[in-house]
């Protein structure tokens, strides 16, 4: 446990000093831990655990956009878990409200339906469609087609700087849309 | 988009660097200051006898109290802009201005006074005080909330309330140079009511705009 968290702290420090691969490894390493926490939270709240992936993605976006509030001299795990707890509580509250409304409206269609064990995350994908075309294209190129920033720039005849700006703005407005939905 | 794809996308954006919260807060405060100063000098202005008033320790004490409130609340704001932060270990900062005020009240009690305590407490400017401090605090409150929004406060209402304290401290510092009521009893009553109002406004707005 202790060792794992020290490793995270080290990876995050490298990430901040510009090591993209370390950042990728860090996010890959924390995702299963966040997934387990999200499932526990959903189960405890009496909500279907198959929605855990939406929460994981929500947390990862917040980690990414708020990482400047992490103090590089402090361990990473307490900061990460604070962000995760915050997002989890938020999503449970939001879902609680929505599920309540849904059950009122669609009680009959829901009856007898058993949720799949793990549903793919749908919220980020759905909000992606509402982004301005340029941001959506850039995000899709990098996420789905695994294109690099350079390749994406060439494909859309943009400068690399413009791709970076569209990428960051796209991620920021995705997060804002998820928060306001 | 599955989670692995999202992670890939986030890693591609690793080069992006956000400004530190303190920097954004400072910029926002620098933008808000002229607005409050303009409001102050067009509507209130410094009291005419300010040169003689400065020799009165109770006049000076008002600034010690309001500035202590502003500075300690800004420090707590910056602390609370981090998600893992809590008020524990930092809450006592907010008692510094209260302590100064209590010391001032005891000091005044020990001195011979021309007016009874109740008259000093009621003063002449309570209504202006209750209107001016909240209004002057609106620009710095907006600035503090903008700074906090750039951070990741775990408890939006608490962070908003502390932003309100900071804004009220700054507004009261301006107002104190206008007000002719210097008794710490007046300050402890009316400044506190005005500050509580701004704190409540901050908590209310904070709970709505500070979720991240």
Q: Which characteristics define this entry?
A:
heterodimer; A: about 180 residues; mainly alpha; Rna Polymerase Sigma Factor, Chain: A; Arc Repressor Mutant, subunit A; 2 domains; globular; B: about 210 residues; 9 helices; about 75% helix; elongated
Short overview:
The complex is a heterodimer of chains A (181) and B (212). Chain A is mostly helical and 181 residues long.
Give the overall shape of chain B, derived from the CA principal axes: elongated
Tally the beta strands of chain A.
0
Number of E strands of chain B: 0
Give the proportion of residues in helices of chain A: over 70%
CATH secondary-structure class of the largest domain in chain A: Mainly Alpha
Helix content of chain B: over 70%
Largest sheet of chain B: none
Number of helices of chain A: 8
State the end-to-end CA separation of chain A: 36 Å
How would you state the average pLDDT of chain B, rounded? Answer: 94
Supply the CATH superfamily name of the largest domain in chain A.
RNA polymerase sigma factor, region 2, helix turn helix motif
Could you spell the SSE succession of chain B in H and E letters?
A: HHHHHHHHH
Query: How many domains in all of chain B?
Result: 1
Low-confidence stretches of chain A: 99-117
Interface with most residues: A-B, 50 and 30 residues
The main pleated sheet of chain A reads as:
none
**What count of structural domains of chain A?**
2
Q: SSE string of chain A, helix = H, strand = E?
A: HHHHHHHH
SS content category of chain A: mainly alpha
Tell me the radius of gyration of chain A.
18 Å
């Amino acid at each position: 446990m202790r060792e794992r968290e020290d490793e995270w702290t080290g990876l995050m420090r490298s990430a901040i000093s510009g090591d993209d691969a370390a950042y990728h490894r860090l996010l890959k390493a924390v995702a299963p831990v966040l997934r387990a926490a999200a499932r526990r939270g959903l189960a405890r709240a009496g909500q279907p655990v198959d929605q855990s992936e939406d929460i994981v993605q929500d947390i990862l976006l917040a980690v990414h956009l708020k990482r400047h509030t992490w103090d590089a001299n402090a361990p990473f795990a307490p900061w990460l878990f604070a962000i995760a707890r915050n997002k989890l509580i938020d999503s449970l509250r939001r879902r609680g409200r929505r599920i309540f409304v849904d059950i009122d409206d669609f009680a009959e269609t829901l009856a007898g339906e058993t949720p799949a064990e793990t549903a793919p995350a749908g919220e980020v994908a759905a909000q992606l469609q509402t982004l301005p075309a340029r941001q959506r294209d850039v995000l899709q190129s990098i996420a789905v087609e695994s294109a690099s920033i350079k390749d994406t720039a060439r494909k859309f005849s943009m400068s690399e700087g413009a791709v970076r700006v569209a990428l960051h703005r796209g991620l920021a407005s995705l997060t804002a849309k998820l928060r306001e939905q | 988009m599955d989670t692995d794809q999202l992670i890939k996308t986030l890693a591609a954006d690793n080069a992006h660097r956000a400004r530190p919260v303190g920097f954004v807060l400072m910029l926002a405060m620098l933008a808000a200051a002229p607005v409050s100063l303009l409001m102050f000098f067009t509507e209130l202005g410094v009291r005419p006898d300010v040169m003689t008033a400065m020799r009165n320790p109770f006049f000076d004490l008002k600034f010690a109290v309001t500035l202590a409130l502003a500075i300690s609340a800004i420090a707590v704001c910056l602390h609370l802009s981090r998600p893992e932060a809590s008020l524990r270990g930092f809450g006592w900062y907010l008692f510094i201005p209260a302590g100064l005020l209590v010391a001032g009240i005891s000091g005044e009690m020990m001195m011979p006074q021309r007016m009874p305590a109740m008259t000093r407490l009621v003063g002449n400017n309570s209504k202006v005080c209750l209107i001016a401090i909240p209004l002057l605090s609106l620009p710095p409150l907006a600035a503090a909330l903008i700074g906090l929004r750039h951070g990741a406060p775990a408890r939006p209402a608490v962070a908003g309330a502390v932003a309100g304290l900071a804004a009220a401290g700054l507004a009261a510092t301006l107002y104190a140079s206008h007000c002719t009521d210097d008794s710490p009893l007046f300050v402890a009553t009316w400044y506190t009511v005005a500050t509580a109002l701004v704190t409540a406004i901050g908590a209310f707005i904070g709970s709505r705009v500070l979720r991240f």
